Amino acid sequence: MSVNIVVLGAGVSGLTSALKLAQHGDSSITVVARDMPGDYSPNYASPWAGANFQPFSPEDQCRWEERSWPEMSRLAAHVPEAGIHFQLSHVYRREKDAQSGVSSFDSMFIQNPWYSRLFPDFRELSPDELPPGVTSGCQFTGICINTALYLPWLVGQCRKAGVVFRRGAVTHVKQLQSMHHTGEPADVIINTSGLGAKTLGGVEDGDMIPIRGQIVLVENECPTMYNVSGTDDGDDEVSYAMTRAIGGGTVLGGTYQKGNWDPNPDPQMTERIIRRCVALRPDIANGKGASDVRIIRSGVGLRPYRKSGVRVEADMKAVGNGTLVVHNYGHAGWGYQGSYGCAEHVVELVDSFVQSKATPQGVRSRW
């Protein structure tokens, strides 16, 4: 059984879902998106991401990240053109954050984290390896992604698998039923609209809010990635650094401002971000101070956060007429590191839908 599928959204979730669907069964896939790789818009969060692999989720919700790591690490090891490389990663914990309960990514900073089983070289840091103000931490070899290379690489892989791309903006999920490139109606719609799910007709998810992330992309390289549990500059300001693969610069962050829609970089925030990074890791500036940090650009991305958690589920009501909608949105700041796990579940949901439809002979088909 051949299936016509329309994917809404060309961020990392949409592209990965389209790729895995195209690789799985007999399908004809169209990706419809307002923003495409190469575009920079605050509402198009994927280009602004770091992006790396430092697990955020609690253990009871770790499936998405745990199932993504084997593929992401395979790409880093064997597919250099994807723009992913291995980088030693440090997670720093401050005692004051643990005592106050303040941390933007709480599960990342727990002692004895579940993700220790993912990384063969995971270990706790000794006291003499900790920077000032940090009371404990761990290290492991993770990955960092050059989004300017990886997103186009995903597009290329999708095209190789026969996926068609169309520019388009929609106001209601029902419109997608008539947007398949063949002109035939879509059997399945994949909703990876991110923050757009808040206003998309037929979805209108009131749990969706932005988490404003301001970053600074700099020329300087950081020998290791790091993420620290908090800052003294405010509960919604964070500090991290990661060097992108293949000359992509180093991303310094940042902010984690829930409900803030402001798309404009704040120059004073840029200064604080750089100051925090250099204070914690002077090697970013070769010990010369913040004046030696060479800025490429500052930017803002709005992370698509869902208060009740990521939504990856089947929905037969949004369109009706027997059309399946599979939602895959609400990832906040972990869209890349959960992308393959979530796309895997998208495939499972579509597969279940297709397999439930018997052929005229009553034999079930792998599409």
From TrEMBL:
GO terms for biological process: D-amino acid catabolic process. D-dopa binds at Q54, R303, G333. Its cofactor is FAD. GO terms for cellular component: cytoplasm. It comes from the Eukaryota. Keywords: FAD, Flavoprotein, Oxidoreductase. Pfam families: DAO. Belongs to the DAMOX/DASOX family. This is FAD dependent oxidoreductase domain-containing protein.
